[in-house]
Amino acid sequence: MLNQATIQTIKSTVPVLEVHGTAITKRFYKLLFAAHPELLHLFNHANQKQGRQQTALANAVYAAAVHIDHLEAILPAVRQIGHKHRSLGVKPEHYPIVGSSLLAAIKDVLGDAATEEILAAWGEAYQVIADAFIGVEHELYEQAHNREGGWSGLRRFIVKRKEEESRVITSFYLVPEDGNPIASFEPGQYVSVHIQIPGNDYTHIRQYSLSDAPGKPYYRISVKREDAAEAKPAGIVSSYLHQYVQEGDLLSITAPAGGFTLKADGKPIVLLSGGVGLTPMISMLNQLIETGDERNVAFIHAALNGQTHAVKMHMNKSTEAHPRLRTYICYQMPTEADRAEHGYDKEGYVDLPWLKAIAPGPDASYYLCGPIPFMKSMYRMLKAWDVLNEDIHYEFFGPAGSLEAE
């Protein structure tokens, strides 16, 4: 427990962190990797280059400072990050390394303003926060190892089938090389895929949502090929998986993880996805159908057009077969073929009037997944419709962020 003097010192740094938080975390990662280059194996280098990892850490540090006198308020976030850490292989011995680099970064960025009192207070606070993460992650490691079909660390899987779902999305069906059972999971969870690409110095780790219901003899991941765009290079891992990984090849993955899962609240369900964000939603949908769940479900999906819309035929067949399911498709730029087939419900973007016309109402459970601009737009709409925070559930691809207005 922290004493009152330490708590007050930490709280006094909140305004400083609000201004300098990202500068501190940028410096932190530079110091961390210079002293411990082996940790580069644990990080997504693309997120580092785009600043997403630095921003996510800055937000986490800021939240810890704001809530330092009642850290239970950030426990849900700790658990969500803990899932990612367990999936990546973060261990207790990493935390002292991180702590020393973080304190050094605070000192470097703030200079004389980082007094000995402030550094000592943050040293104490970091240890309390680290202990919370270590405790949560220990529990998650134990769960992953002890569940039926579970395992620790990496396990090798054979690519049993590789199937093109759209012009940019391909599914990989993975079965265990050892032939033993695989762990069940909750729809919405993900696995970490570890890839060693020829010519690259470091292992690349990417987390991909499982895109089918549990209970199958395989895991399925559906990967979008991230092509080069303005100021954004092509995705190293997604391109490698699409171009070079073939049926019969081996992939090393960690056991399923993640807290973005269906809630048993009895409310109607709205699955609201953009682009490849439909992957966890398909897992949720398949599970709802296969278990005979009696809740009404609306599946609303936004895509560029029919060429990029994955598993469309499956969605159509599911809708025809299950009277409690309604699907709605919005294409930003439909092709002439899309227009001829009448294969979508709205052109342009999902907007609030359309959402109100097709969704069951604000008293439903909403699940969001997709590109960050899409999720921010959907979140604003739901809040404008007076949907409660507790009924809005979402998952980020990569480092956690915020959907609140900036």
From TrEMBL:
Its EC number is 1.14.12.17. InterPro entries: Cbr1-like_FAD-bd_dom (IPR008333), FAD-bd_FR_type (IPR017927), Flavoprot_Pyr_Nucl_cyt_Rdtase (IPR001709), FNR_nucleotide-bd (IPR039261), Globin (IPR000971), Globin-like_sf (IPR009050), Globin/Proto (IPR012292), Hmp (IPR023950). Residues 152-263 form the FAD-binding FR-type domain. The record marks Y29 as: Involved in heme-bound ligand stabilization and O-O bond activation. It is an enzyme of class 1 (oxidoreductase). The record marks K84, E395 as: Influences the redox potential of the prosthetic heme and FAD groups. NADP(+) binds at G275, V276, G277, L278, T279, P280. Gene3D superfamilies: Globins, Nucleotide-binding domain of ferredoxin-NADP reductase (FNR) module, Translation factors. GO terms for molecular function: FAD binding; heme binding; metal ion binding; nitric oxide dioxygenase NAD(P)H activity; oxygen binding; oxygen carrier activity. GO terms for biological process: cellular response to nitrosative stress; nitric oxide catabolic process; response to toxic substance. The active site is at Y95, E137. Residues 1-138 form the Globin domain. Its cofactor is FAD; heme b. Is involved in NO detoxification in an aerobic process, termed nitric oxide dioxygenase (NOD) reaction that utilizes O(2) and NAD(P)H to convert NO to nitrate, which protects the bacterium from various noxious nitrogen compounds. Therefore, plays a central role in the inducible response to nitrosative stress. This is Flavohemoprotein.
